[in-house]
Amino acid sequence: MLLRLPLILARFLHNGRLRLLFLGLILLLVISLLLTYRWRTDAELCFIETSPSQLEEQQQPVNMPKILDDVLVTEPKPVPGRSIFFHETSCHRPKRKRSRPGQKSAEMQYNMLQLTARQACAIESAALHNPNFQVFVLFAGPTYYHSGNSSSGGSSQRYQRLIDAILSYKNVQLRQLNLWRYASGTPVEDWLNDGALFRSSFLFSHISDFLRYLTLYRYGGLYLDMDVVMLRSIEDVPPNYTGAESNTHLAAGVMSLAPTGFGHEIAQSCLHDFMHNFDGSDWGNNGPGVITRVVQKLCGTKDIAVMLEDRKRCLGFKIFDRNAFYAVPWKHWRHFFEPQLLEQTLAHTKDSIVVHVWNKHSKQQAIKVGSSTAYGKYAEQHCPRSYAAAGEYF
Predict the structure, then answer these.
(1) Which residues span the membrane (predicted)?
(2) Would 300 be classed as within a structural domain?
(3) Strand partners, 88
(4) Per residue in 132-147, pLDDT tens?
């Protein structure tokens, strides 16, 4: 058979249509590989630290942006078990500018500090209702900001107003982290260095998943998604809990673990599950999938109704029912934005601790500040400074 391969290949290439089809497939494969490599290279740059010498070589202007302080070395540091964490893993790097022939290389492409009004609302609501907790907003990768007000207009001024709004709370801290240093000395250090995470089809989402479990392993405390609004204090709620999203799955948008003992053991189990079951082609497998699998094993059942009914079987780990954090399921996300459903939605969430507005589905749904929507009413009451700084639309 092997001896006949050259003959088979020659006959195949002799056929004009087959030859064109073959060459076309090869060309598409090459283009796809090049585009994937370019995207991954650009994406990874968001998380790679730039050395001071590189900055000097670029001969930046006097008003060069400053880099956020690193969470691992800057005071105040997170107080284990008494801190609330948000993670921002988006990439806000401007598009590359090509240099003309004979010109020096293009300017350094900064990953600039940006927050949407809704992200600011989540942060503010946590800070407002939990004044005795420090609220840390951790930006994955080197993140830069302009000290003082930005001289540019438009969206830059809006970002600055929102940042000023959340920093008016003394318990809010903005920090950056380096993925590799942050993972150093933890069970996921070697796994991260192997690079599987950066081969994900949902890179930014999966880095967010990775960091929530790593942060809870490092510090314990409370992790929150950026698309929530906290409606009341959670300071006195004992640690070690998450919330049910459905009858079959727990969610990873609100999670609390103690920094030591039982809570730390669960965090360690989550990191091991993340590594061993990581699937870069599955959006949800590495986020809610992790905490669901770990708690199912802990409780000895896959039936969430049983977990809710028999609290003892989960050994002290608490499962909140859907009303606590996910009273409005993702399929009904529009209820937050429809004026005719205002009273119904407010009544449905009257006992909730947190509401989750499902940004993946709702991010394009703008609401006019002052309009009668459930989300608008939450924001007006629970993140008033961000709501006021948002401008015309929230």
Answers:
(1) 20-39
(2) yes
(3) 139
(4) 999 999 999 899 988 7
